[in-house]
Inverse folding.
């Protein structure tokens, strides 16, 4: 079952990537001015892959989409521990963490990450999740502080909008 | 935010200070001013080279080797920002996750945000924060460079240029720019064909040039993925630092850098003072005339300055 879900997620994310990425570029022109030496804050996002999960097509498509929306995206690469992810989020001073998990271990890994963030005094970071997560688990994850869940097939614009609206201004 | 938290080693405070500096927030400026006198102890090393030559992997291996020697290590890794959207994919860290949780290592990724010299506008300042934190060595990784992105040479004390074989004939080694800034040359992926030949070509290039005050850049062969040659590279880097200190290059560089800093700040302030909304409006009007060839850009600039 996990395998079926995974391949679907990959296909959807892959198929969406081309059109959506383009839409992102066009849109962001107005919302996010091009890089200028004048300064100002740019939304920084950590896209993270916790646990033993080799599927990162979705995470890469999201990373690319956020980049095209004018954000600075730090990608951890595959198979990271919660400790590595939280240390990275702290050092990079990110505004947002996007967790992706397709292995089924989300109920172990995500809450652990949320706890570590709290311990590090970094629980003001907006955390979103994506991947293959059964519907019943979503409310449980939200209770741990995860702001929202983006399942397979979510349009990139929706993710970009959510981040822009919910990111905490410092 | 209190700059003392940076000196105390509070990771969140360090990271936040870096953001404020990078965003050119007034708060960042005051932190930087407060930290200035706490800097100057770290050995700042630049690592530059074309995309994919193994900069990030080598930086990771170097950081690990430095940690084995008991040092505190800072890393600043720069990747390009999009000229269209300003967004960036900062992927240098992927190669360095093995040291992500080491409390004596601090890694920061930066987008170039419009800068074209191989570094971001505030890379040197971010390195200064790591210096104030107490890093013994700071590794500054540039974007993948071509031939002319040589800003790194002004931001570091030791500059390492990484090359790999198969990217052109010996004429490439004779060109001005990046081949002139190496205090140490590294031929990475040395297990690939052509590595020995490249070493000879670089050697020949160096022998033809003038030796700048007693330091002859070594050429070191490495295979970063296998950790081969890394110790030798660290030794070479340390030796350069000592020699540069001895023969006075370091002191001279320090003064040059200070001059650049002052110039930068004066230029920024002058520009900010000069470009009032009225002048900006005038420039907008004039640029149409210049584009239509009704006025040349020098005349337009004259008008902006004299108005």
């Amino acid at each position: 079952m996990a395998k079926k879900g995974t391949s679907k997620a990959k296909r959807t994310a892959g198929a969406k990537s081309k059109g959506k990425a383009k839409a992102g570029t066009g849109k962001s022109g107005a919302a996010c001015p091009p890089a200028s030496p004048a300064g100002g804050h740019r939304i920084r996002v950590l896209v993270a892959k916790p646990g033993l999960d080799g599927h990162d097509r979705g995470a890469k498509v999201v990373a690319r989409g956020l980049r095209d929306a004018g954000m600075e995206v730090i990608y951890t690469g595959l198979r990271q521990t919660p400790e590595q992810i939280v240390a990275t989020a702290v050092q990079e001073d990110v505004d947002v963490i996007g967790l992706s998990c397709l292995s089924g271990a989300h109920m172990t890994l995500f809450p652990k990450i949320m706890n570590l963030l709290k311990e590090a005094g970094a629980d003001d970071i907006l955390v979103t999740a994506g991947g293959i997560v059964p519907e019943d688990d979503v409310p449980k994850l939200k209770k741990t502080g995860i702001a929202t869940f983006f399942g397979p097939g979510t349009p990139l614009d929706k993710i970009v909008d959510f981040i822009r609206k919910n990111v905490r201004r410092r | 935010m209190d700059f003392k938290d940076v000196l105390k080693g509070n990771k969140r405070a360090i990271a936040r200070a870096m953001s404020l500096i990078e965003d050119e927030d007034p708060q960042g400026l005051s932190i930087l001013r407060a930290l200035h006198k706490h800097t100057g102890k770290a050995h700042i090393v630049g690592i530059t080279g074309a995309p994919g030559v193994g900069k990030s992997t080598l930086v990771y291996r170097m950081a690990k080797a430095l940690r084995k020697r008991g040092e505190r290590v800072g890393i600043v890794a720069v990747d390009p920002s999009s000229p269209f959207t300003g967004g960036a994919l900062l992927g240098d860290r992927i190669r360095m996750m093995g040291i992500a949780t080491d409390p004596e290592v601090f890694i920061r990724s930066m987008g170039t945000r419009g800068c074209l010299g191989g570094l971001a506008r505030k890379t040197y300042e971010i390195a200064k924060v790591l210096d104030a934190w107490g890093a013994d060595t700071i590794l500054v990784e540039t974007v993948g460079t071509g031939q002319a992105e040589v800003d790194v040479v002004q931001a570091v004390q030791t500059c390492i240029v990484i090359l790999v074989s198969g990217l052109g004939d010996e004429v490439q080694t004779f060109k001005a720019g990046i081949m002139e800034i190496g205090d140490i040359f590294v031929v990475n992926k040395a297990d690939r064909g052509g590595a020995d030949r490249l070493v000879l070509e670089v050697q020949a290039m160096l022998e033809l040039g003038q030796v700048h005050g007693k330091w002859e850049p070594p050429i070191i062969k490495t295979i970063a993925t296998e950790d081969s040659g890394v110790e030798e590279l660290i030794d070479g880097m340390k030796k350069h630092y000592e020699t540069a200190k001895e023969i006075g290059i370091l002191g001279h560089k320090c003064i040059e850098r200070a001059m650049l800093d002052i110039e930068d700040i004066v230029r920024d302030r002058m520009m900010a003072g000069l470009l009032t909304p009225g002048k900006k409006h005038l420039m907008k009007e004039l640029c149409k005339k210049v584009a239509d060839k009704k006025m040349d850009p020098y005349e337009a600039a004259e008008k902006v300055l004299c108005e």
Remarks:
- Confidence is low (pLDDT under 50) at residues 1-38 of chain A.
- The longest helix of chain A spans residues 2-31.
- The longest strand of chain A covers residues 96-101.
